[in-house]
Amino acid sequence: MKLHWVWVAIAFVLLQAVNGVIDFNETELSFIEAYDYGVSELNHNPLMVGLTLITSAGAKGAVCLDGTLPGYHWHHGYGSGANNWLIQLEIEVWTLGACKNFTLPIILCQGGGWCNNIRTCVYRKKTRRGSSTYMEKHIPFTGILNFFNWNRVKLRYCDGASFTGDSENKAAQLQFRGQRIWLAAMEDLMSKGMSNAKQALLSGCSAGGLASILHCDEFRNMFPTTSKVKCLSDAGLFLDAIDVSGGHTLRNIYSGVVGLQGVRHNLPRMCTVHHDPTSCFFPQNLISNVQTPLFILNAAYDSWQIQSSIASPSADPLGLWHDCRLNNAKCSASQIRFLQGFRIQMLNAIKGFSMSRQNGLFINSCFAHCQTERQDTWFAGNSPRIRNKTIATAVGDWYFDRAGVKVIDCPYPCDNSCHNLVFS
After folding, report:
1. Average of per-residue pLDDT across 113-136
2. Tally of domains within the chain
3. Cα–Cα distances in angstroms (integers) from residue 214 to residues 186, 281, 289, 291, 333, in the given order
4. What's the average model confidence in pLDDT over 209-230?
5. Which domain CATH number covers 308?
6. pLDDT number for residue 45
7. E strands along 54-150, which residues?
8. 159 included as an active-site residue
9. Does residue 203 carry a catalytic annotation?
10. Which of 132, 162, 203, 206 is catalytic?
11. Does residue 66 fall inside a structural domain?
12. Which residues form the domain of 288?
């Protein structure tokens, strides 16, 4: 029966993908989660990789929100890739549909990339995002997780603060140990051969994309200077933007995360000497000071940020943005102008970063979020392109120094290669 529904999900998503639009019904949470795990890969037999719990983590206090051991999925490299490593920091499944059956704060329902108060963290620890008890024992490796013949590792996300927190709340029985999880995972992998890496790439999407920026230089410093080490952030360029009500929805969320989870002491000092801790959780205040080569991949009209930050229901109590939030084709001319302003803010945020020759950029004018783990957006016949270059090709050219890559799309609606996310 389970297999039957997996194939239903595959057929559903592939049918929509043909038209360059992924159309989800708000109640189809299970389909969305299957899609985020790559079930829609054009190859219907994706590589399934088992979960490994980090047994040494417990003694280091490196545990998930509920105190269970963290874990990762590792597919061993072989041949010429035996000493090359890709570390992928897990994405956060997000969906409007999650709010359908739960009376929960909007940050949890509409994204939950982070938990910013006791209530959302207590809920989270009863899911795979806060406990290894609920994690899938096997997951498919698709998109960037099919990175040649390298060692490919997907580190599971169970702390709710982009692997940066280090505190606890005994009354609520919550452990905020993201930084310790990060270190314990890296130490474990180093002991299993990663210390011999000739080439390494730290990547992540969404909350994991933010984490790949925050931990990029730390990751570089784990290897000898002779190793080629770079970082990739997909959909991690979260902006400190003004929302449609004139407020700062995401700043309020980040302030809760930083304060609750003890993030402050794990933020880059180059930032905290000039800015408050919450500001230093925003990539726009971090990326220019990252010393390691970094590639930023982002949709200029990031779906998560539209739905959960700049036009969230809490910022739009009258529902004037409801239809636009679900489907970009239903945005009014004035709403598109507002979103064009968001795109301009994103381009301004990367100006200093883009001046470094070692860095890479791929900013496409799509309504999307997380484009590396999905096979259809990472590398397929109809994948998104800028100047006829796919995301996979752009990342490959940059990582292997084949070419400098700093490509920025023309404004919406000029790009007809997008796989826009549409919620109906």
Report:
1. 97
2. 1
3. 15, 8, 11, 12, 37
4. 98
5. 3.40.50.1820
6. 87
7. 71-75, 84-89, 138-141
8. no
9. no
10. 206
11. yes
12. 48-93+104-408
